[in-house]
Design a protein that fits this description.
The complex is a heterodimer.
Chain A: H1 2-28, E1 29-30, H2 32-35, H3 43-56, H4 58-88, H5 93-99, H6 101-115
Chain B: E1 4-5, H1 8-11, H2 15-39, H3 41-46, H4 54-71, H5 77-108, H6 114-134, H7 136-140
Helix pairs in contact in B: 4-5, 5-6
The chains are: A mainly alpha, B mainly alpha.
Chain lengths: 116, 154
């Protein structure tokens, strides 16, 4: 139990640090379309894969990254939808980004159910 | 369009904005780990590409643009949302790099060391993402149609 808590804590701290690092890069760079590249950086993958490899080995991590590809396709659909909605209807950015999250869930789960 | 980095922009990030990003990133990493433990690496793997900081990032981009316009006495609501749309366009191109990262790690991890494959996948992510951004105009921008109507004689 304590091992699981330690692992979760390590994931939280490493994940938070790496995500914040990429967020800083996104804040620094101009033009904004270039800075947006860092919004889709593999920050969560970088944070968790090192721990996963140490705990469960490379083959387990390889399966995770195989399915990460489907998550990436879903993220692309989500970001295209967010871009279109923000340009076309100009709602609040947070409202649009949260309201469109079901696109990520539906596309990624659809691809997962086909590929598993 | 020239890419430039403004280090002064880091000073403009408020403590609560740091906190939102840190907590969002950390929480998604923990959730991805818990899902992988409970349901296996296939479902957990999807969450390695979850848009964890995109909602917070897009709203902060909008807020910063609004503040910037408010300083010169203008309403930056519309401009802020246009900038957030540009941020989303960049994220969509960055997804190409994210997919390439997963592909490289998946295909090459059985053949080389973990540290080397992580480094290689990160370099491929950067190359593909920046490459797509540089090619955005020929790839995504529609050419403007020249009007076929004859010019009116003066």
């Amino acid at each position: 139990m304590s091992h699981e808590i330690t692992e979760a804590l390590a994931r939280f701290l490493i994940g938070g640090t790496i995500v914040s690092f990429f967020a800083v890069l996104a804040e620094m760079f101009r033009p904004k379309s270039f800075a947006g590249l860092f919004g889709a950086a593999p920050s969560i993958a970088l944070a968790t894969l090192a721990i996963t490899i140490r705990e469960r080995g490379k083959s387990y991590a390889a399966i995770e990254t195989h399915f990460m590809i489907y998550g990436g396709i879903a993220f692309c659909c989500y970001a295209i939808a967010a871009c279109w909605i923000l340009r076309r209807y100009q709602p609040g950015a947070l409202k649009a980004a949260l309201a469109l999250l079901p696109i990520w869930f539906s596309v990624s789960f659809a691809l997962w159910s086909v590929a598993r | 369009m020239v890419i430039h980095a403004r280090f002064a922009a880091i000073k403009g990030i408020k403590p609560h904005e740091w906190l939102i990003r840190f907590v969002a990133g950390g929480a998604v990493c923990v959730i991805a780990g818990l899902i992988a433990n409970a349901y296996g690496p296939q479902l957990g793997g999807l969450f390695l590409a979850f848009p964890a900081i995109f909602p917070a990032g897009a709203s902060l981009v909008e807020a910063h643009e609004k503040q910037h316009k408010a300083r010169i006495g203008r309403d930056g609501t519309k401009r802020g949302r246009q900038i957030a749309a540009l941020d989303a366009f960049g994220a969509a191109m960055g997804c190409g790099g994210l997919i390439a990262f997963g592909l490289v790690f998946w295909l090459w991890s059985p053949h080389t060391s973990a540290a080397l494959v992580l480094l290689l996948a990160t370099l491929v992510w950067l190359t593909v993402a920046v490459g797509l951004w540089l090619l955005r105009k020929p790839l995504f921008h529609k050419p403007r149609h020249v009007s076929q109507r004859p010019r009116r004689r003066r």
